[in-house]
Amino acid sequence: MSEISSRLRQVLDSIREAEIKSGRATNSVSLVAVSKFHPAESVLEAIAQGQLLFGENRVQEAVEKFQQVRVQSPQAQLHIIGSLQRNKVKKALSCASCIQSVDRIELLEEIEKQAANLNKTVEVLFEFHTGEESKSGFTSLDSLLPAVEYTCSASHIVPKGFMTMAPFTENQLEIAASFKKLVAIQQEVATRFPNLDLKELSMGMSNDFALAIAEGATLVRIGTAIFGERVY
């Protein structure tokens, strides 16, 4: 078994253990294997072990990499998880099924426009700022609600939930507070938009995914623990 395969198995086992410890149903949490800065060959190693969902931050890198990956594994799914500029949306939609990092209504408008041109339906998560000052995301309910409202009339966008990045700290209370804040946002928005299915909570990375699972994560974004340090 390769090093990536071994690490992937350890991560999946840790996710299952965290589900049990938190009283969550088995397989209620999905792994987004973050393959940024790693080559297509590493992605294919993970796919060979059954991992089909991946996350990338940089659009150009993602497009080039997954064009290669899908020659051998057309079933691989890609989520864009990094900050997305409007002029990169068309390229992003050419390879991704979900944009996790929607942080403004103008981006949603561009996604709808480009998805319509591609005759494609795209899932989105609303990124909400709960941690460091440098991180992007909606910063208030007042700014988020119009964006959610927009998706109700956008025929090529399917809103699925929310995403956040916890502060980069060893303080477990601060990290947990970040995750709790996203859960509170999800509950408030779901109350206001009962017809939308907003159950996905993308939160937790290599250093804090067990805590994220305890707080309700349905998607965890893990890269280093699987692929190791960046290759390029």
How would you characterize this protein structure?
With 232 residues, this protein is an alpha/beta fold. The protein has 9 helices and 8 strands. It has an 8-stranded parallel sheet with strand order 7-6-5-4-3-2-1-8. It is globular, with a radius of gyration of 17 Å. It starts with a helix and ends in a 5-residue tail after the last helix. The mean pLDDT is 95.
Low-confidence stretches: none
Radius of gyration: 17 Å
Structural class assignment: alpha/beta
User: Which of globular, elongated, flat, extended, rod-shaped describes the shape?
Assistant: globular
The arrangement of helices and strands along the chain is HEHEHEHEHEHEHEHEH
pLDDT averaged over residues: 95
Helix content: 40-55%
State which percent range the strand residues make up. Answer: 15-25%
The spatial strand order of the largest sheet comes to 7-6-5-4-3-2-1-8
Number of helices: 9
Number of E-type strands: 8
Cα(first) to Cα(last) distance is: 24 Å
